[in-house]
Amino acid sequence: MRTLEHRADLCVVGGGIAGLCCALSAARLGARVVLVQDRPVLGGNASEEIRMEISGAHGRDNRETGIVEELMLENFYQNPALKYPLWDSVLYETALREPNLTLLLNTSVFDAESDGARLVSVRGWQSNAETFHVVTAPYFADCSGDSILAPLSGAAFRYGREAKRDFGETIPPDEADRKTMGMSCLFQIRETDHPVTFRPKEWAYVYETDDDLPFRDHDLGNNFWWIELGGEWDCIHDTDRCRDELLKIAYGVWDHMKNRGDHGAENWEMDWIGFLPGKRESRRYVGLTTVTQRDVEAGGPYEDVVAYGGWPMDDHFPAGFAHKSSYPTIFHPAPSPWGIPLRALLSANVENLGFAGRNISVTHAALSSCRVMATCGLLGQALGTAVAQAVRTGCGLRGLDVPALQRQLLEDDCFLPGLRREPWALSARAAVSAGVVRNGLDRGDENLWRGGEGDFLEYALGADTDVRRIRLVFDSDLNRDYGSMPCSVPLRQTRYVLPRTLIRAYRLEGFASDGRRFELTVPDNRQRFVRHAVDWRVSRVRLTPLATHGADEFRLFDFEIG
User: Where in the chain are all domains bearing CATH 3.50.50.60?
Assistant: First the structure.
């Protein structure tokens, strides 16, 4: 056996969507990051091992942007057939491109060293390499979902459902308990051009009629999220027990759809089944504040807002599949968006520990609205950005400059409810052909510039001026009616494509008063948010859109120079 030592500014534990966004944001802002993930792939519940679609806030123009949108658009570009192993490759490649980010995959954290109220290091075991890894850092981010650093560090945490009276909520039970939402093993199906047989598993359950699956929609486009157990058990220590039962149910459901009744599945086959349960809830940290049902319903108008939710309070019955008397979840209404504060991401008693994902400081009721992965990605980006500021300024997580943190998140294309991004100083004082492109609002049709063939946008500076950077935000259709990945595969899949509204090709030009001209042409853009570093001394800067990914008009939210 060997032991490898790593020193970093930030150690991120957990490589799901929250952990990846946390690590990427911190690394891109200059922090040295080690990301420790106990699986061979990134993505957590969104990975090929579990295959849950990334969901987020409801409502017009409320889709999550920042790194979450970057990952989705890159996947549509690189992986047009939407193969899950290639989606995992997109996540891996995105991490690999960051020079400040070190990946430790297949590494399970099992021990930690603390010094008073501070974490000092964590220790992990990489089984395939027979290697111990020790990561020492001034800051730690637990994005593991199960909050593995809580029992290892002594950080305060909660498990289960609070009583109604504990936080003045109406959703919880009258008395507190240790019940949670359960976990699911999904399966996916694929359509063929010929009949396919399915031989039932002898060890699986049998569901003879639809009456055996009450309130469980099982059409061909389902992702079978309701194959769920564990909420009445221990969602950490009983994971394998749950898997065994969930597989019996999953194979039984497919047997029912193929062999017991007419479900239109004659030409469909089981393409994949998950052996790693996807979890909804387990340990939740106690932070500097705890977000409750009442806070969600009020919209969370926090001064330290750093992210937002917008999924309903989707409270699954702990019995999961065994709950037969009604639909398996209750969708309690929640506003969209509602703000989430930085204080809910910082440990109450371990001063250099933050967390992002489904383990933030919320009650069970509030968790049911903010546990979905697009929200978790926003939380991860917010935490990584916060740590980068702490590293750069030495202020610590408790002394962060919150307005500066919010400005950085807005700059990096993260929407924050109630806040508007300030335009760059050079853009603000220059003359521009369309003022809407510097209004600090990067979503909503009223904030779009629209153009046709031959149209362009231009800044006039009056005299030759140094221009070092250019910021662009294109229209990636935040109201598109499809998510990240399909849950079933028909013969012809046409929905999941790069948004037609996205500008594919464009030209940037700088014109100096002595006739010199600078040019930068991008022929194959696939991102909403783009930044360019330039070294121009010019009196005019022009953006000319050249092509889209299918739309008839050019659409753009932001064009700024600095």
Answer: 2-159+287-411
pLDDT at 310: 98
Closest CA to 8 of 91, 103, 96: 103
Beta strands in 382-528 (DSSP E): 431-432, 449-451, 457-474, 488-489, 503-511, 517-522
For residue 222, name the pLDDT band (cuts at 50, 70, 90): confident
3-state secondary structure of 205: coil
If we measure between CA atoms, which residue out of 166, 178, 158, 159 comes closest to residue 294? 166
Q: What is the DSSP letter of 161?
A: B
pLDDT at 225 over 80: yes
- Which among 91, 102, 111, 131 has a CA at the least distance from the CA of 34? 102
Whether the model clears a pTM of 0.85, i.e. scores above it, the answer is yes
Q: How many CB atoms lie within 10 A of CB 394?
A: 9
The dihedral through the CA atoms of 291, 295, 300, 301 has a sign that is negative
What's the token pair of residue 350?
């371990």
In this structure, the number of other CB atoms found within 10 A of the CB of residue 561 comes to 25
For residue 505, the cross-strand partners are 547
Report the candidate in 505, 503, 508, 516 with the shortest Cα–Cα distance to residue 533.
508
Tell which residue, 394, 410, 190, has the closest CA to residue 307.
410
- Nearest-10 crossing angle of helices 17-28, 84-96: 30
Residue 181: is its pLDDT beyond 80?
A: yes
Short-list 3, 4, 5, 7, CA closest to 137 = 7
Structure tokens at 195: 């009949």
CATH superfamily of 2-159+287-411: FAD/NAD(P)-binding domain (3.50.50.60)
For CATH 2.60.120.260, the residue range(s) in the chain are 425-561
Q: Are 538 and 464 in contact (CB under 8 A)?
A: yes
Candidates 169, 113, 386, 152; CA nearest to 297 is 169
> Contact, 452 vs 553, CB < 8 A?
yes
Number of H helices, E strands in the chain: 11, 28
d(CA 549, CA 526): 9
> Which architecture does CATH list for 425-561?
Sandwich (2.60)
Question: Which three-class secondary structure state does DSSP give residue 372?
Answer: coil
According to DSSP, residue 211 is labeled: G
Average pLDDT over residues 84-104: 97
Which of 132, 138, 108 minimizes the C-alpha distance to 37?
Answer: 108
Candidates 173, 186, 187; CA nearest to 232 is 173
Q: Which residues pair with 131 in a beta bridge?
A: 2, 126
pLDDT grade, residue 482 (50/70/90)? confident
Q: What is the pLDDT of residue 484?
A: 81
